[in-house]
Design a protein that fits this description.
Layout: H1 2-5, E1 7-9, H2 23-38, H3 40-46, E2 53-57, H4 64-74, E3 78-83, H5 84-89, H6 95-108, E4 112-117, H7 132-149, E5 157-163, E6 179-184, H8 190-200, H9 212-218, H10 224-240, H11 248-266
Parallel strand pairs: 2-5, 2-6, 3-4, 4-5
Antiparallel strand pairs: 1-3
Helix pairs in contact: 2-3, 2-4, 6-7, 8-9, 8-10, 10-11
The chain binds adenosine-5'-triphosphate.
Adenosine-5'-triphosphate binds next to α4, α8 and α10.
């Protein structure tokens, strides 16, 4: 069961340079995750405990997973990922055990960064905790909290959680000593989108007429994941047209297509 829900990556390939436009967030992640792993003595000397867990929150596809992977990579830590939804929905009744396993695997792979995606699945405010499904979720969350409460003895393990639904979180997990460092990861602004376009086209054969500043303006409201999708799709348009060079019109068509797909998915179309 362990192997199927836990993703262990001994050297994730994401670097800080792969992340566009999240300077402040990167600084904070480095300070709270990297420093305790690389210079634990600094915290001893100063006489403070590093923050226990950090919580990244913001819309889907904005780089939360990337941030966690990058900090693991840059500190030579293993990256151990689990999704909150899998903890409770995939193996009913196993949630608490999986949480125990998660920390055990982290200890075996120190230094390690534990990344719990969709933390809201095990830690949302409940309206009715009497149903059995909720009781299971509750047990899973209690196990996580108790693992975190014994955290200072854990040495080289840092824990990062992520959610798209910050407003739904149970405040119990945000208390001091738990996920007490909150970092908002918003969608990129226009400058951020331009950087992300540059990052994702690094290996692409892009025509000189392509202006990323202009594309960034056009792709208003796009997330980092959307920008990546535009780049891939633009490449597909070029291939379909039997070209090996990607032109401005390919990027524009890709953005159009992505918007249409989105409208279809969300059912916004008339
Ligand atoms: P979710 O909440 O859906 O899990 P997330 O915030 O964890 O999303 P990521 O998985 O980090 O998002 O991003 C998805 C992909 O989108 C990345 O693999 C990357 O290709 C691209 N991407 C997202 N944000 C950025 C960014 N700031 N810079 C560069 N690429 C980005």
């Amino acid at each position: 069961v362990r192997a199927r829900v836990m993703q262990i990556d001994h050297s994730p390939d994401v670097t800080y340079a792969d992340i566009g436009g999240l300077g402040d967030q990167m600084r904070e992640v480095r300070e709270t995750v990297e420093l305790p792993l690389t210079q634990p003595e600094t915290f001893d000397t100063v006489g403070i405990q590093p923050p226990s867990g950090i919580l990244l929150h913001g819309p889907p596809g904005t780089g939360k997973t990337m941030l966690a992977k990058a900090v693991a990579n840059e500190t030579d830590a293993s990256f151990i990922k689990m999704a909150g939804s899998e903890l409770v929905h995939k193996f009913i009744g196993e949630g608490a055990k999986l949480v125990r396993d998660l920390f055990e695997v982290a200890r075996e792979n120190e230094p390690a960064v534990i990344f719990i995606d969709e933390i809201d699945a095990i830690a949302s405010k409940r309206t009715d905790s009497k149903t059995s499904g909720d009781a299971e979720v509750q047990r899973t969350m209690m196990q996580l909290l108790s693992e975190m409460d014994g955290f200072d003895e854990r040495g080289d393990i840092r824990i990062i959680a992520a959610t798209n639904r910050f407003d739904m979180l149970d405040e119990a997990i945000l208390r001091p000593g738990r996920f007490d460092r909150l970092i908002e990861v918003p969608k990129p602004d226009v400058a951020g989108r331009e950087l992300i376009f540059q990052i994702h086209t690094r290996d692409m054969n892009v025509d000189d007429d392509v202006d990323f500043a202009e594309l960034a303006e056009i792709a208003e409201d796009a997330s980092g994941a959307d920008v990546k999708a535009i780049c891939t799709e633009a490449g597909m348009f070029a291939i379909r047209d039997d070209r090996t060079e990607i032109r401005r019109e390919d990027f524009e068509a890709a953005w159009e297509k992505l918007q249409q797909d989105d409208t279809m998915e969300t059912g916004d179309s008339p």
